[in-house]
Backbone:
C-alpha cells in the first residue's frame, strides 16, 4: 500500500516542491493542503506541475485562500496586490485549462480517519458535516455560473455558523472557515484580523484546534495556512505551514490511515529548506 503524505503551503515554490517530492518514499501519494500559488517565484510552473501530478493519479490538491484569490483574479473580480506572483498564470496560453482544473479541486478530503483542510474546522462540525459543507462550496465552484459565487465570496460576515444560514452567507462562512480560520471563540465565532502565533490569541478567542469540545477532537486534522505557528504536532492535530515562501521550510507529514488507530500521533515528517524570499524579514 502506497504511503500518503500531506504537504503544507507550497505558494509557487516549485524548486522546493520538487526537492521535497524527491525525499519522499517512491510511489507515495501526495495531498497538497492549499495555497498552491502566490508569493513564491514560480506560481505558473507549480500549478502546471501539480495539475500533471493530479492527472497522473499521484497528487490531489485542496483549495486555499490564495488559490481562491487566483480564481477571483481570473474572473476580473480582484485586483493585483503588491506581493502577488500570479501574472505568469494570467498571461499563460494554458490559463483556461489551469483555471478550470483549479476550480474543480476539493475544499476538504478525508480517508475516514484523517481530515485534511487548508485552514481549520469550526467546533460544531464533525467529520461528515465538514465534508458535506465543503462539497457545497465545491459544487458552487464547478458550476458554469461560478463567477457569481466568487463575486459574493469575500467578506467577514457572518462570523458564526448556523444551520439556518442560506445562500451566499452560508457559502461564505464555509469558505472562511476552511480557508481563513485561525482563532475562534469556544462557540465558534471567527476572528480574521490576528495572524500571529499561539501566544497572540485575541481576548475571548483561542486557536480553533484548542477548542475542547470541538466535534473533530477525535479526528486527526491536518492543515496548513498558519505559518506563524510553525510545525504543529499535537494529539490528532498536524499543522504544516512552516513558511516555505518566507525562508522557512516546506513540510510533508505521513497521513494516518484508518488502520493506524491506536498508534502514536507522531507520524513521519519530511522537510526541505524553503525559498529565500527577497522581502522576508
Residues:
Amino acid at each position: 500500500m502506497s504511503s500518503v503524505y500531506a504537504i503544507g503551503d507550497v505558494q509557487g515554490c516549485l524548486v522546493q516542491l520538487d526537492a521535497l517530492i524527491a525525499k519522499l518514499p517512491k510511489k507515495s501519494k501526495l495531498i497538497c493542503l492549499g495555497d498552491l500559488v502566490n508569493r513564491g517565484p514560480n506560481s505558473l510552473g507549480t500549478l502546471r506541475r501539480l495539475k500533471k501530478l493530479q492527472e497522473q493519479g499521484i497528487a490531489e490538491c485542496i483549495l486555499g485562500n490564495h488559490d481562491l484569490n487566483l480564481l477571483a483574479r481570473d474572473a476580473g473580480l480582484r485586483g493585483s496586490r503588491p506581493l502577488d506572483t500570479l501574472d505568469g498564470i494570467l498571461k499563460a496560453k494554458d490559463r483556461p485549462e489551469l483555471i478550470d482544473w483549479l476550480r474543480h479541486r476539493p475544499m476538504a478530503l478525508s480517508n475516514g480517519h484523517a481530515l485534511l483542510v487548508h485552514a481549520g474546522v469550526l467546533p460544531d462540525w464533525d467529520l461528515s458535516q465538514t465534508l458535506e459543507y465543503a462539497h457545497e462550496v465545491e459544487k458552487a465552484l464547478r458550476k458554469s455560473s461560478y463567477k457569481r459565487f466568487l463575486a459574493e465570496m469575500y467578506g467577514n460576515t457572518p462570523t458564526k455558523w448556523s444551520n439556518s444560514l442560506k445562500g451566499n452567507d452560508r457559502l461564505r462562512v464555509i469558505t472562511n472557515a476552511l480557508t481563513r480560520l485561525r482563532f475562534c471563540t469556544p462557540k465558534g465565532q471567527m476572528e480574521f484580523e490576528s495572524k500571529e502565533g499561539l501566544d497572540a490569541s485575541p481576548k475571548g478567542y483561542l486557536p480553533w484546534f484548542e477548542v475542547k469540545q470541538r466535534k473533530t477532537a477525535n479526528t486527526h486534522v491536518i492543515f496548513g495556512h498558519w505559518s506563524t505557528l510553525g510545525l504543529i504536532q499535537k494529539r490528532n492535530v498536524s499543522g504544516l505551514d512552516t513558511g516555505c515562501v518566507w525562508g522557512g521550510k516546506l513540510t510533508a507529514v505521513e497521513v494516518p490511515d484508518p488502520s493506524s488507530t491506536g498508534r502514536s500521533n507522531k507520524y513521519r515528517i519530511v522537510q526541505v529548506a524553503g525559498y529565500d524570499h527577497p522581502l522576508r524579514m
Observations:
- The chain has a mean pLDDT of 94.
